Amino acid sequence: MTSRRCIDAALLVAIAITHNAAAQKPPTSLEMGGKKSVTRFFITSRGLGRGGDLAGLAGADAHCQALAKKEGSGDHTWRAYLSTMATSAAPAINARDRIGKGPWYNALGDRIAVNVQQLHSDTNKIDLENAVTERGDTVKLEDHDILTGSRPDGTAYPGTGDFTCSNWTSSARGRAQVGHFDRMGADARDRSWNSAHATRGCSQQDLRATGGSGLFYCFAID
Predict the structure, then answer these.
(1) Which residues contact 174 (CB under 8 A, 6 or more apart)?
(2) pLDDT tens sequence across 159-179
(3) Terminus of the chain with fewer CB atoms < 10 Å: N or C?
(4) Is residue 19 part of a domain?
(5) CA pair distance 53, 206, nearest whole angstrom
(6) pLDDT in tens, 87-126
(7) Which residue from 181, 167, 196, 217 is spatially nearest to 45, judged by alpha carbons?
(8) Does a structural domain hold residue 26?
(9) Which domain covers residue 49, as residue numbers?
């Protein structure tokens, strides 16, 4: 009898743990009309029109904030998903370290990722259907190159090769590493959302030539 009670008690504990874990996991979608706006992730509906010159990280962040505010999501603090490379005056900055902890939801209320770890795994929901703009619009396929300057794990490139258009201040020198929001490409690397290939240069024309227009990802850090 004592043995049976122990088994029953163990089962109840296991059920409670499972229930609590499920309750604590962020929902797969959010309803509109909460205390804060639903949108916590988007692709910019337009770039700045200067190729890889975004006026640095500060300029890119300001662009995210302005677009979000226009659509009613300015109650969050926004950061661009961009890495910068180390210079003699400053260390490298990793995109993954500047976007908060998650979870992140798109403008339609659908969850993109629970946390930074899932975001940089194969289970995130960044794809043609879910990677929408701040207005909830689908991005044109001819603009599928999204600026990141990052490796697949969201970190900056080491060394002296420029993959960030001079840390997002140049429309001439360097190149930019980009991802494919639609996850389309010939192989697994080409299908990366954040690190598919480098552009041929940093001008607006160079970005156009490889399939982009200077768009980038924005994440709410709160």
Answers:
(1) 52, 162, 163, 164, 165, 166, 201, 202
(2) 888 999 999 999 999 999 999
(3) N
(4) no
(5) 12
(6) 999 999 999 999 999 999 999 999 999 999 999 999 999 9
(7) 217
(8) no
(9) 34-220
- Spatial contact of 44 and 133, defined as CB atoms under 8 Å apart: yes
pLDDT at residue 12 above 70? Answer: no
Cβ contact 156:85 at 8 Å: yes
* 105 domain residue, yes or no: yes
**DSSP notation for 79-144:** EE---B---SSS--B-GGGSS-S--EE-TTSBEEESSHHHHTSTT---STTT-BBTTSPBPPGGG-
Provide the sign of the torsion angle of the four alpha carbons 25, 29, 30, 31, taken in this order. Answer: negative
How many domains does one find in the chain? 1
In the predicted model, what is the mean pLDDT of residues 73-84? 98
Six token digits for residue 90: 């400053």
CATH of the domain at 173: 3.10.100.10
Domain assignment present for residue 7? The answer is: no
